[in-house]
Amino acid sequence: MKAKLNINEQILHMQSLGVAFELYSEQKAKEFLTYNNYYFKIKSYAKNYDKYKGKYKNLDFAYLVEFSTLDMHLRRFILELSLDVEHLLKVSLNAHFCNNRNEDGYNIVKDFLTQNTKIKEQILAKSQDISFVKNLLSKYNAELALWNLIEILSYGDFLKFYKFYFEKYPNKENLYPLAYCVRILRNATAHSNCILNTLKIPYNSNFKPNKILQSYLANIKEIPESARKKINKNPMLHDFSALILLFMKLCTSQGMKKAKRKELLCLFRRFKKNKYFFSKNNFIRSQFIVFQKIAFFVIFSKI
Fold this sequence. Notes:
- The protein is about 65% helix and about 0% strand.
- The longest helix is centred in the first third of the chain and has 38 residues, at about 60-100.
- Among the domains are: about 20-45 and about 55-75 and about 205-265 and about 280-300, no CATH class; about 100-170, no CATH class.
- By secondary structure, it is mainly α.
């Protein structure tokens, strides 16, 4: 069990591990750990650095602060894009349903809830609790239709219903695998979890690369095989690329696509602002290069 450390002890502990305070003074670091972020979170970015004889190599506290700032900007971009994707998935499902003469919207909900009793119980709990969907449920709970259900399900449960629907009524392109593989990244950003602390140590060592994404990237000549291998080894890079590809496949609004491209350009401009911080860490630099290259090729592609 690790002992509790006060702010001064946290600084001393980092120094004992080789973290330097040359670009970021100890006093500024104390203020940062008091008012801006906390030790457990800021220290997690040190995972991206190698150790030699128990001490980190070429690691200044300023680099950890920079990682936390970049992570904040990245999380905001991912979360906003994830919410857009969730909305577009619902739009595409509803559009297919509206043209489906074999489904009235009630039978499939009954079948789905019969097979997923836990989700049914959760819906009942929401109808009795204080929530944004309580009024909707009190009005329609007895006879939920498809258009009601998709408004009250969590993202994970919505994906179950999305899969359930398209297994019964197959579509020309199955986007469920892409939507499923981005769920961990989406949930992590929604809970403000660190993202960039997983560059060297992935958050999921057993993940399988998505075939749709692999096939798409393989057809882009400008992306070398070495870059594709990096994507397939790191869940964060993989899932971020999958999220952008899914958005591009779902979105039909050129204005919306243009806005996202602009946001991505702003994000990567911020990534480059203090790029010299990582000049001595070839691993981080190579990961960032692949990260940006893949994202740009996907979001500027004509899908």
